[in-house]
Amino acid sequence: MRRPTQKDVAEKAGVSRSTVSYVLNDQDDLKIAISDETRQRVMQAIADLGYEPDARAQALRRGNTNIVGVIIPVIENPFFWQTLTGITEALREAGYSLHLYHNPLDERQGLYTVRELTRQRVEGFILLAAVKYMLPMLSDYLRKSGQPIVEITASAAEFDVVMHGYSSGTRALMQHLFDLGHRKIGFIYGVTSEGQGVDRLTAYRQTLDEAGLSDSRRFEVHCSDQMHDAYTAAYTLLQQDDRPTALLTINDMLAIPVMRAAGDLGLSIPGDLSVAGFDDIPFATYTMPRLTTVSGMAAQSGRDAVHLLLQRFAEPDLPRQVTAAEVELIIRESTGPVRPPGKG
Q: Is residue 189 domain-resident?
C-alpha cells in the first residue's frame, strides 16, 4: 500500500497542506491563526490515515536531528551491548535516538562505514573505544567532522571521555589470587591490536614485580581476540609440566574458551586452575563454575557518556571533560585456593 502523504491528510481534513505542516510542527509562534477545531480535524485525519511524518525532512527543517552516532568496535562481545543499553536508555530519556555504526578492521569495511556516516546527519558521536584505535580514514573523518565526541576507553583520549580503566580492579583481583596462595599466575592477553587492554596487562605485571614474582610473567600469552585463539593459547600453556595455577583473561568472553581448554585437559576449576576475567557479562553467572570477574559497570559507563555529550551540546566551550568509571571485583566459584602438592 502507498504511504499516506501530507496531501492526503490535507484533503481528508479539508485544509491546505501548509496548515497540516503548521500543525505537525507546532509552529504557534507564526502569525497564522489555526483554530482548535481545525487542529483537531488535522490530527484526526492523521490518525485515520496512519500518516507518519518524514523524520529526516522534519530534522532538515529544524536544523537538527536529535540523533547520536554510536560506533561499536566488536559486535560479538556482550560487554559492548551492555554499554549500549545504558547509552540507549539515557538518550531516550533526553529525547534522542541513536544510529549505530561498526568500527571495522579492514579498509573496504571502513569505506562503507565512512559512507554511512556522511549519509546520516547526527548531533554528535559516542565511541566505544579510543579514536586512535580506529582505521585512519574513520578517525580522520571524526576529527574533521567538528561534531562533539565522547570516548569510552581505558587509553589516552582526545575528546571528552569516560575513562573506563581496569587498573585498580586488576590489582584487587591479583591480591585475591595472592590471598588464595597463587604464585604462578598467567595472563591470556587476547586483543585485536597491541595497546588495547594495556591497563590490565600493566597492572598484572606491576603486581607480580612488586610481589617478587616477576618470573611468573613467563605465563603471559598474547593472542588475537578470537575465542578459538584464546582456547589454543590456553590449551598449549596448560599442557606444560610447569603450568600456572591461575589464569587471568583479558575479558569474560575469552575466559569461556580458556575454561573449556582446562576441562578438555582434565583440569578442574578451581581445584587445578583458577580462572578470572573482566567485564562481568551476563554469561559470567552461567558458566560452570560461575566466573570470578571485575565488573566495569558497563551500562553506567554508557549513561555517563551520554551525560558528557549532553553537557557538550549545552556548553560547547567547556574544558575537556573526564569521568572515571567505577569497577568492582566480583568473586565467584572459578577461583579457589591452590591445591597442595600431591593432592588430586
A: yes
